[in-house]
């Protein structure tokens, strides 16, 4: 077995694979005991795919009986073979019939389709994840376009709003303001059953999608995002940890909600809040290692920018709402410029909203325009933003901190969106202000009058907050709009032509960025990684996609996109010396593909298993 890239990493603090140990299992019928070789269910960290295959095929559990069926990571339900049932102490605990994973997956999707609504589907999928993880991901991967809107936006938004009511089983770790010291938080993290955590998605629930402060109900978001780590990038589920930082909520409805699951107090802010986040960061890397990726998700605006600035060079961290969103939007814009046949530097962009999403996109667009030859000031001059107080202009006195100031214009402080569209005459209109329907007929029509091919992105989530529907964008512009939205819309037919609206959602980006970061041990994730991801995604958009109205490849390709992003990040990071896992894999794509999560069941007792003599004599047969 060759020394491996990942094997070297494991010397630091991870458990080396393969973990070969012996467990004692009871015999199938009667109390005879026998010895079975057991392997870790983690993928092997080897360059040789045959080794990896060997480990997966020979994986055996370290529990038996009912405990095995109750462990979702290894439970196979009725797919346990007779031999497995007999040897692992579950014979008779399952119905006598056998089902393979294909049959189980068919049963699950049929059942899901019969549910009365999407929330019921969410609850059912959630329960499946608690019961049989491989089957959950198998079904999710097989039906990604159909099920993404359930485990992710828009349904995850509704699920968060009803989180207390639909709550069944804990998923992830809750850290509260009452746990505000590093040792306590370390102990809480140590209660999590997995020690090889490589990626954390953390929220404090203050800005859940466009739904505002949902407090501890926001836990649905880290859970959903990490499901996409696995489903869209093939990151191993055991490496993923959802975290909810509960500092209270300012949402009075939740404080009055009898089912509320969080601390019933107003949000703690200021020094005590900062200390909690600091303690969490310290405890997380102490527990899981300095290169543990920590993705900030759905924090309130002020904290999101502040914490990103504070931690970006100190930890392996990024803010998905700022940087991931920026990356997917710039990818869409790069693809759109192939339709308009104009370089990005020639576009004039108006943002409706000037928060995490809009400013993140604006700043990354500036970076791209600089690469196209503009100066920072020239690029900023092409970008206009409107916030809750109106257009960002130099005469405003409230722009002293933050990034808005870069984009302030010498213009009158016009508040209305339509007035700004008419006077600025943008070629691109991007919405991320959580005001559903803000791009009304007049706004869209005006964009259509100003531009041959108006670019309109309605990025707010969930669907109820989208600035306009795909139908409105295409029909009002007579099919000329180049459109993308944060939440999915069905295809729209205008004048006999079918348009497939792109989903401009950071889910095209963060899974692949995380995959590359984790596998190469990138210590800091920066804007250059996100711009690289934008280009990678944009390059995967074909002329056929563009002709169908798509600015992104279809969601069904997203696993492949994630691998491509991860490979691009690996190439960049080994070249510029920011990867920390050595030796450098000679074939990065092959290495990455070998680490991808496999949804097929492990065969706990291989066919080649050397069956002990006495068990052979006991006469059980494998059907
Ligand atoms: N598609 C995707 O991948 C993503 C989509 N989003 C979505 O984008 C939306 C915004 O998120 P985010 O930027 O993080 O939130 P923020 O709270 O950071 O920003 C919201 C912005 O909207 C502005 N705003 C609020 N009301 C109005 C109004 N009436 N008129 C004009 N502007 C207004 C706010 O103004 P002010 O600055 O004055 O407060 C602020 O600038 C959410 O719906 C979120 O779900 C977010 C991330 C990713
Ligand atoms: C998609 C996302 O991250 C958001 O809406 O917050
Ligand atoms: Mg988000």
Short description:
The chain is globular. Helix 7 (133-142) packs across helix 12 and helix 12 packs across helix 22. It is built from 27 helices and 16 strands.
Cα end-to-end separation? 35 Å
What integer is the average pLDDT?
Answer: 89
Number of strands: 16
Ligand catalogue: NADPH dihydro-nicotinamide-adenine-dinucleotide phosphate, pyruvic acid, magnesium ion
The geometry reads as globular
Query: What is the assembly state of the chains in this entry?
Result: single chain
Strand content: 5-15%
The biggest beta sheet reads:
7 strands, mixed
Unreliably modeled segments: 1-58, 618-623
What's the alpha carbon Rg, rounded to whole Å?
A: 26 Å
Strand order of the largest sheet: 10-9-8-11-12-13-16
Structure annotation, total helices: 27
